[in-house]
Amino acid sequence: MERAMPTRRKSTGKRLRFEVFKRDHFTCQYCGAQPPDIVLVADHITPVAAGGATTIDNLLAACEPCNQGKADRSLAARTIRPDADLLYLEAQQEIAELRRYQQAKAARDAEIAKVVVLLQDEWAAVSDLEWVPSEALLRSLLTKHAPEIAEAAIQDVASKMQGGYVSTEGDRWIPYLFTVARNLAHEYEDGYGA
Asked: What is the pLDDT of residues 59-74, one digit of tens each?
């Protein structure tokens, strides 16, 4: 009875092993362990016994316990441990973008607050009413319309309330303010206000 000759394993060589370890960031690609806690070996993804070649594309860094536990079995998909430096840089980029957004939002909110005060001052200058539109109302108006539209609407409605054309009782003037602003916006879009 003839015995089958075992497949002769080609030596990986120091240079090839080093290139594999360097590519894999000197990290076991199965468990994530790193020297000096473990000793790395170059493991065949497709085992030599199954016809796997000793090339950089078929090798990965593995610690001895993981390599021995795998034995000559092939892994359908290897899990590459993420590069910690890359993950750190991605997190730092996200933090920088969030900070930039927070700064821009704070600056925007501060500018809107200034415009609200200017609109309240404009209202007070046009009418002799003892009150001005609330900050929340003017912010709502500014979310729908440009500041110049809001200012023109304030001037129109305040003067009409001053003249008695628009009632000062209740909140019926609020929908009128938004209607005037919407109509002015349409006029500007059509080129009449330009």
From this structure: 999 998 888 876 555 5
pLDDT in tens, 87-99: 888 888 999 999 9
Cα distance between residue 48 and residue 4, in whole Å = 15
Pairwise CA distance, residues 3 & 1, whole Å: 7
Cα(85)–Cα(39) distance, integer angstroms = 22
The CA–CA distances, whole Å, from 35 to 29, 40, 46, 61, 146 equal 13, 7, 24, 11, 62
The total number of residues shown for the chain amounts to 194
Structural domains of the chain sorted by starting position, each given as residue range(s) with its CATH number in brackets: 14-70 (1.10.30.50), 92-190 (no CATH)
Distance (Å, rounded) from C-alpha 25 to C-alpha 61?
9
pTM of the model: 0.52
